[in-house]
Amino acid sequence: MGGLTLVDPTHPDDRDRRTMRVAYGVVSGLNAGVTIGGKQLPLRVLAGLASGVAALRFAAASESIDLRLERKLCQFGVQHPRRWMAVGTAVFIFAGYLADRAAAKQERRLEEHAELVSDVVVDHSDGTTTLI
After folding, report:
1. Please, are residues 35 and 51 in contact by the beta-carbon 8 Å criterion?
2. Which pLDDT score, from 0 to 100, does residue 45 have?
3. Which residues of 8-21 are buried (b: 16+ CB within 10 A; e: fewer)?
4. What proportions of the chain, in percent to the nearest 5, are helix, strand and coil?
5. pTM
6. CA nearest 10: which of 70, 72, 98?
7. 75-108 pLDDT, tens per residue?
8. Looking at residue 79, what is its pLDDT?
9. How far apart are the C-alpha atoms of 32 and 30, rounded to whole Å?
């Protein structure tokens, strides 16, 4: 995603603009499909499709924000603003990936803990429970 930020959207022709929008949609969809949706393939596909469609739908607004950010960075004297925008995008994507992995690790720990606890609790027919 950070690499796509290096492309300057200010002067592309219609074909280039469509290509970039589709590329953003595909990358967004793949990212969402990999990180969202749990272990079930249909949920991953649905998350990927929804993200890709949203990226395509809001591409014009995204390009406008992108251009405004680039101009603001230039006003503040930043050299090569698109490079910094690409680095920032890559950092945010990587931070999201790390947060997703940490959440998945925590979820696995909670599931393991729940299995251990369920093995220790015995339910009796009279409604009482006994810890072993």
Report:
1. no
2. 86
3. ebeeeeeeeeeebb
4. 75, 5, 20
5. 0.64
6. 70
7. 999 999 989 998 998 898 889 888 888 888 888 8
8. 93
9. 5
Q: Which residue has the tokens 């015995």?
A: 122
What single-letter DSSP state applies at residue 40? -
Q: What would the two tokens of residue 114 be?
A: 């729940």
The tens digit of pLDDT for each residue in 17-76 reads 888 888 888 888 888 887 776 677 888 888 888 888 898 888 888 888 888 999 999 999
- Encoded amino acid at 105, one letter: K
- Cα 114–chain centre separation: 28
> Using an 8 Å Cβ cutoff, are 9 and 23 in contact?
no
Contact 59, 21 (CB under 8 A): yes
